[in-house]
Amino acid sequence: MRNLIIQGWRPALVLIVLFAGWELSTVVFNIEKWFLPPPSDIITVGVTEWTDYNQHVFATLKLIVIGFVIGSASGVGIAIALHLVPFLRQSMYPLIILSQNIPIIVLAPLLVGWFGFGMFPKLIVITLVCFFPIAISLLSGFQQADRDLSHYMQMAGATKRQIFRKLEWPNALPSLFSGLKISATYSVMGAVISEWLGANNGLGVYMTLASSSFRPDRIFVAIFIIVAISLLFFLLIVWLEKRVIHWQTAEKRDSHDTP
Amino acid sequence: MTHLDVKHIQQSFGDQHVLDDIQFSVDEGEFVSILGPSGSGKSTLFRLIGGIETPTSGDIHLNGRSITGKPGSVSYTPQSPSLFPWRTVLENVLLGQEIQGEKDYDKALDMIERAGLASYEHAYPHELSGGMKQRASFIRSILSPQSLILLDEPFSALDEFTRIDMQQWLLSMWENHKRTIVFVTHNIEEAMFLSDRVIILSHRPATIQSTFDIPFSRPRHEDLLLSQDFLTLKKDIYHDMRQSHT
């Protein structure tokens, strides 16, 4: 906790100054509320209208979590398959890179056209943005296993499966988590974008409605909530990482002690 | 009884000739050092004996059976202690057994204790000093089911006194557990102090330049390092190696 205060006061101060400046300038320059509402208004709207829009928040949260789970599972699956089967790696790698060059914004309406307004097309969008960072970083994690350790395993007569489970997989865990962190934030964006293009509820829908009825305060409420969800999600992954990769956090602590 | 028999090994990578007609044998329970300049192909020789590379020609036998290109017959300790960072000391020393089958926790704990690593069995490698890591990785080798141990310059990263302590510790472990050890080093003193026999490799392509029997009685003590006989023999080996180097 003390650590949090010591390290966190600078970014906290920046945020406070930013919001104070925003609040002040709406007063000083007499900015209309429909043009740019002050933060205090946004917070008021966010609190008082919570019962009206909370269904959208929960719909999006559900979408993010399911999409993220499917997306990361496919990322892990693809990385393992590509790592263990050299033929797959050589033939599929370009396709995987290519998949990231498809503009999601263009793809999403097509998916809605094919699969309707349900969850399925949205999950495809989230999976598509989620799997990539995980697959790529995990794959490089597998391949960066220490040469000495790998020679040791081979000479000891380890099977390919043992080398994977006892060396390459644990060695790739830090890479997996850096992929997961990126994907966690991507999945939030992916969910909102997919809802934007056609859904019955969700923060994307809420934003579209707010924007067509000229309610910038509600748009900002949605933005704040999206930022908060991303941040929480990211912190959750960081927390998980610390629990899983105990040997590395300790190593970092050691190197801090000796300057 | 001949344990390891290396027969006329040749190894080339493309037009690079690394090993040329390497031929030697190691008896059961013998401690043999391979001494050679850096880049003389010592590590290549180990990868061949370890079976993860196949020689261009020649054959390697262990207990009379060919192990050429067949991994799993030796226990290897690389230059770095090569403990797995995500495993505790106990899990690390059991790895060799784990790969081959049954794990013997009691024996492992006993060895850890006798190696002076008691209370460290659940520590992670980053919490250990260099010498402790080397001891853990050597326990891993002793615990492994394989009877032939290959050590690849295990003490090169340690300071002088830690190295001498580790060498004496290694000798005591070897005397107690009677394994066959092939030890690679570029340090003449280290090779002499530890071994029954020292095989000297020449520069590339590596051939066996000469073999020295080390007659000093065992158990050996630190004082030996400064005795007249030791220094005389060291001089002979030094001149022998110097010749091929120029």
UniProtKB/TrEMBL annotation, chain A:
<dbReference type="InterPro" id="IPR000515">
    <property type="entry name" value="MetI-like"/>
</dbReference>
<keyword id="KW-0813">Transport</keyword>
<feature type="transmembrane region" description="Helical">
    <location>
        <begin position="95"/>
        <end position="117"/>
    </location>
</feature>
<dbReference type="Pfam" id="PF00528">
    <property type="entry name" value="BPD_transp_1"/>
</dbReference>
<keyword id="KW-1003">Cell membrane</keyword>
<feature type="transmembrane region" description="Helical">
    <location>
        <begin position="63"/>
        <end position="88"/>
    </location>
</feature>
<comment type="similarity">
    <text>Belongs to the binding-protein-dependent transport system permease family.</text>
</comment>
<keyword id="KW-1133">Transmembrane helix</keyword>
<feature type="transmembrane region" description="Helical">
    <location>
        <begin position="12"/>
        <end position="31"/>
    </location>
</feature>
<feature type="transmembrane region" description="Helical">
    <location>
        <begin position="175"/>
        <end position="199"/>
    </location>
</feature>
<keyword id="KW-0812">Transmembrane</keyword>
<feature type="transmembrane region" description="Helical">
    <location>
        <begin position="123"/>
        <end position="142"/>
    </location>
</feature>
<dbReference type="InterPro" id="IPR035906">
    <property type="entry name" value="MetI-like_sf"/>
</dbReference>
<feature type="transmembrane region" description="Helical">
    <location>
        <begin position="219"/>
        <end position="240"/>
    </location>
</feature>
<keyword id="KW-0472">Membrane</keyword>
<feature type="domain" description="ABC transmembrane type-1">
    <location>
        <begin position="57"/>
        <end position="237"/>
    </location>
</feature>
<protein>
    <submittedName>
        <fullName>ABC-type nitrate/sulfonate/bicarbonate transport system permease component</fullName>
    </submittedName>
</protein>
Automatic annotation (TrEMBL), chain B:
<protein>
    <submittedName>
        <fullName>ABC-type nitrate/sulfonate/bicarbonate transport system ATPase subunit</fullName>
    </submittedName>
</protein>
<dbReference type="InterPro" id="IPR017871">
    <property type="entry name" value="ABC_transporter-like_CS"/>
</dbReference>
<dbReference type="InterPro" id="IPR003593">
    <property type="entry name" value="AAA+_ATPase"/>
</dbReference>
<dbReference type="InterPro" id="IPR003439">
    <property type="entry name" value="ABC_transporter-like_ATP-bd"/>
</dbReference>
<dbReference type="Pfam" id="PF00005">
    <property type="entry name" value="ABC_tran"/>
</dbReference>
<dbReference type="InterPro" id="IPR050166">
    <property type="entry name" value="ABC_transporter_ATP-bind"/>
</dbReference>
<feature type="domain" description="ABC transporter">
    <location>
        <begin position="4"/>
        <end position="228"/>
    </location>
</feature>
<dbReference type="InterPro" id="IPR027417">
    <property type="entry name" value="P-loop_NTPase"/>
</dbReference>
<keyword id="KW-0813">Transport</keyword>
<keyword id="KW-0067">ATP-binding</keyword>
<keyword id="KW-0547">Nucleotide-binding</keyword>
